[in-house]
């Protein structure tokens, strides 16, 4: 058959696999009735669409609480004498409710937070979709649904006051430089959401790394637990790990009634969603166990060493768990099936490295008290090496056994 005769078949196959936008949107609602032909396929009820849907559902508790907490923290800030910002995001909210006040209830607080979060997510989603469509068109590939979760995870780790142009720039960098240049979905070795955040964190620190960006009011100047401890304003001297369970401040941090990124504050909500992720086996428990074990062991080691000049040495592991983005990173970022290790022993070692690096960065780099982002990106680079070492160990053990 000539190339000219084969051309219609190629085009038919291209469009038959959902590369057009109409087919893609239709596939979000129900599965295609077509059967695969030509090559061997593994038949399974799970696919990319259902995987991403389940991940989104697991993130829902953290998202809903995070939106509510945005309004709650703004209300508390307003009660201290600050004012609401004069921004376009609040025009619909102010028109409907008359503005945020001390008497605003749950729906008022949720609506206030949603007014800021929704534009951020829509910006990340549309920009991510644009680049996915561009690369799918160029490569003549299917348009995968992975951009939904990439945009979702990226926005959840951002401060609420992040400018939309920085949101667009960050997700662009993450999608292109950490994913598409390596071949697209399934070929990337770095987490796209974290890579995008790392780019804007170092490129525009005054826009995404300042405490004023975490609360949607004018003139906020509070501090998170990590920042206070790094600055020596919060002491854990003589504080044992189990004392946290009787400390009201720890419970506030565990439930999420603190200042932080959009959906990183509530450890409880994140653990609920993470448990669902583990039960559906979309995340491997070995990675989570490794991250937790690495964090606890490293924190205990620094507690034993101690330091008269650095209060972070004394922070117990119970506080490391509920501060910053550790819980979200452990449950949803580190467990990314594409960028993690593939062998069982490799997964655990990969998790231990993340836990170790997180505490190490937090304790020794006081200018950057949050360490989970860099820890995961660093571990992404080591994941193939862990798999290689495990494979070589298995080969040597089998050769030795067969030689006997």
UniProtKB/TrEMBL annotation:
The cofactor required is: FMN
Quaternary state and partners of this protein? Composed of six subunits; NqrA, NqrB, NqrC, NqrD, NqrE and NqrF.
Residues with FMN phosphoryl threonine modification: 224
Give the matching InterPro entries. NqrB (IPR010966), NqrB/RnfD (IPR004338)
Top-rank EC class of the record's enzyme: translocase
Positions of transmembrane segments: 52-71, 116-135, 147-173, 185-204, 211-231, 251-278, 285-305, 317-335, 347-365, 371-391
Where does the secretion signal sit in this chain?
none
What is the protein named? Na(+)-translocating NADH-quinone reductase subunit B
Q: What family is it from?
A: Belongs to the NqrB/RnfD family.
Q: What subcellular compartments does it reside in?
A: Cell inner membrane
Function, as annotated, reads: NQR complex catalyzes the reduction of ubiquinone-1 to ubiquinol by two successive reactions, coupled with the transport of Na(+) ions from the cytoplasm to the periplasm. NqrA to NqrE are probably involved in the second step, the conversion of ubisemiquinone to ubiquinol.
Can you quote a single GO CC term? plasma membrane
Q: Which molecular-function annotations from GO does this UniProt entry contain?
A: FMN binding; oxidoreductase activity, acting on NAD(P)H, quinone or similar compound as acceptor
Chief location: membrane
Q: Has the keyword Ion transport been applied to this entry? A: yes
Where does the source fall among the domains of life?
Bacteria
UniProt-listed Enzyme Commission number(s): 7.2.1.1
């Amino acid at each position: 058959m000539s190339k000219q005769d084969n051309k219609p078949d190629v085009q038919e196959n291209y469009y038959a696999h959902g590369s057009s936008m109409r087919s893609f949107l239709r596939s979000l609602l129900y599965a295609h009735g077509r059967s695969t032909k030509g090559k061997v396929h593994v038949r399974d009820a799970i696919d990319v669409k259902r995987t991403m849907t389940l991940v989104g559902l697991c993130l829902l508790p953290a998202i809903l609480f995070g939106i509510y907490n945005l309004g709650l923290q703004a209300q508390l800030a307003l009660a201290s004498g600050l004012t609401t910002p004069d921004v376009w995001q609040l025009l619909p909210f102010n028109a409907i409710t008359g503005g945020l006040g001390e008497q605003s209830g749950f729906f008022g607080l949720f609506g206030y937070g949603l007014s800021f979060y929704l534009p951020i997510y829509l910006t990340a989603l549309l920009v991510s979709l644009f680049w996915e469509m561009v690369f799918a068109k160029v490569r003549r590939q299917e348009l995968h649904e992975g951009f939904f979760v990439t945009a979702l995870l990226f926005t959840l780790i951002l401060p609420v006051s992040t400018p939309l142009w920085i949101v667009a720039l960050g997700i662009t960098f993450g999608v292109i430089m950490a994913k598409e240049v390596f071949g697209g979905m399934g070929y990337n070795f770095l987490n796209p959401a974290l890579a995008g955040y790392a780019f804007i964190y170092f490129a525009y620190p005054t826009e995404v790394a300042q405490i004023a960006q975490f609360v949607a009011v004018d003139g906020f100047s509070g501090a998170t637990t990590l920042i206070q401890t790094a600055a020596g304003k919060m002491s854990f001297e003589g504080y044992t790990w189990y004392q946290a369970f009787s400390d009201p401040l720890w419970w506030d941090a565990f439930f999420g009634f603190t200042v932080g990124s959009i959906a990183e504050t509530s450890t409880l909500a994140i653990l609920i969603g993470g448990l669902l992720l583990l039960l559906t086996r979309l995340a491997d428990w070995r990675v989570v166990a490794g991250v937790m074990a690495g964090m606890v062991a490293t924190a205990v080691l620094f507690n034993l060493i101690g330091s008269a000049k650095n209060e972070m040495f004394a922070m117990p592991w119970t506080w490391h768990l509920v501060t910053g983005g550790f819980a979200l990173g452990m449950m949803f970022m580190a467990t990314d099936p594409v960028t993690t290790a593939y062998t069982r022993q490799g997964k655990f070692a990969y998790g231990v490295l993340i836990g170790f690096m997180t505490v190490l960065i937090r304790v020794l780099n006081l200018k950057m008290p949050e360490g989970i982002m860099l820890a995961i990106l660093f571990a992404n680079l080591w994941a193939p090496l862990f798999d290689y070492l495990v494979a070589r160990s298995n080969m040597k053990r089998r050769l030795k056994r067969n030689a006997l």
